[in-house]
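I'm stuck. Please check this protein.
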Amino acid sequence: MAIKYAKKSNIILFIVFSIIKSLQVVFIANLVKVITNYAVQPKGSLLQVAIVATVGLLLFLFAGIAHEYFSDLIIKDINVEIKRLSSKYLIYQAKQEQKLDTSFFTNDVKQIETSKILSELDAITNVLQFAAAIIAALFGSIVLTIVYLVVSAIPGLVQRIFTKKIEGKSQIWAEQNSTYTNIVKDSELISPTARLYDVEGNIWHRFKRAAVSLEESLFQMNFLRDISNRSVETSAFLFSNILPSILGVILVTRGEISLGILFMIDNLANQFINPVVNFFYDLNDISAANPMWQKFLGTTKRRLSGVKDSMNTTLEDQQFRQLNLINVTVKYNQKTVIKNLNLQIKRGEKILLTAPSGWGKSTLLNILTGEQEIASGEFKIDGMNLAGNWQQAHRYFSFIHQTPLLLDESLRFNITLGYNASDGEVLEAIKSAGLDDLVDQIGLDSTIGEEGSRLSGGQRQRVEIARALLRNRPILIADEPTSSLDEGLARRIQGVILNTNKTVIEVAHRVSPAEAKLFDRIINLDELAE
């Protein structure tokens, strides 16, 4: 249940005020009984009844407000916890078995809130209201109450017919929703290119197809849920209202109960019917949200690797002498991607790795950082086998991406990512990366815009380099760092990367003859593996 992620004190107070709220129907039913009996045989004071009714309803009003307050508080607590745990999984977990994307953090989380958390809280309230109504009715007529109680189980049997089908439709909707979200992002990125080549219509139709598929799957899920709800509602009114009411009239005519008792139980019957109907509505909503909830649970069942407070992480100075790949083979779904690769790199070397497109260069980089398991062979650093050992292997490497990964944050944060680095260490990395002029212009604490939009292409790449140098790790991996830069800027960036005391492993499709001279060795990976 989702409510287990809320604070226990809030759950207890929610249940307490739910119980008080549920007693309101009992209070009103008894007022109906007193007033009806007074109409049949005047006895007592109607003014006293009115005063009691007014005071009582005011007290229930305050209890209802408290009930809603703790309900909203529990929803907030659970939403925060869901986002906290799932975002932790997204950011910390190197090997993600459960894929989380933008769709999950927007649409799926909202679906969990509206269809699961709210429904669980409503289900608790409905159960308590049903129990209060049953107990109160038993004091009026045991026979009539037992009849109401027995027939109220029938809507539950009706609801069970639809549960699995609703979950199936919900799963389809969740998949379509994820696809639609990705296409929205793709369409935004590709639209300038589409306009350039006069193919806007193709991209638009692709978007529309995804939207239609999404809405069709949502329609199918909602329609099936509506059929279930209406079927439950009809069976509830037939078996939990009409038939017991007929029995009640028979008992009155026989003199076994008074008219006031019948009206009281009939009034309470709404609290037999409505909570039962609403309870099964809640179950349908919970079923609809189950695929999204299971996705969230998938992020909590796996122990996160290497979870620590990065704000307090110190800068590394890892020792390194030699890296070896020995007869390394990698497979994806039984397909061999890399076969019998042998590679040796020594401390301080500047190595350029080249290979044709599709060779598996990204896979090789993932092996080095410990993210990729190998089918056979060995990956060693200083004699220690690190194949698939993310926790240990990644600490040897800094990484410069082909496309700089930047946040809409300050220049300082983009370089440190929250590391506990001194201004001196940050400024040293900035100087080594050639960012002095930028810092002089905007300072360290100015935001650089979404994806570094306020910086030039060269400045964005230098921010990546400064980030890599700051960590003071012995091996610097550069994944085609100059492929999108002009020749002059590419040569300057190469000079920054190679003019360090680090071991450099750069991957590229091609480099200019001038750039090639900057490396100690150029290794064609296609010649090293079978």
Remarks:
- The chain has two domains: 2-300, 322-528.
- The longest strand covers residues 335-346.
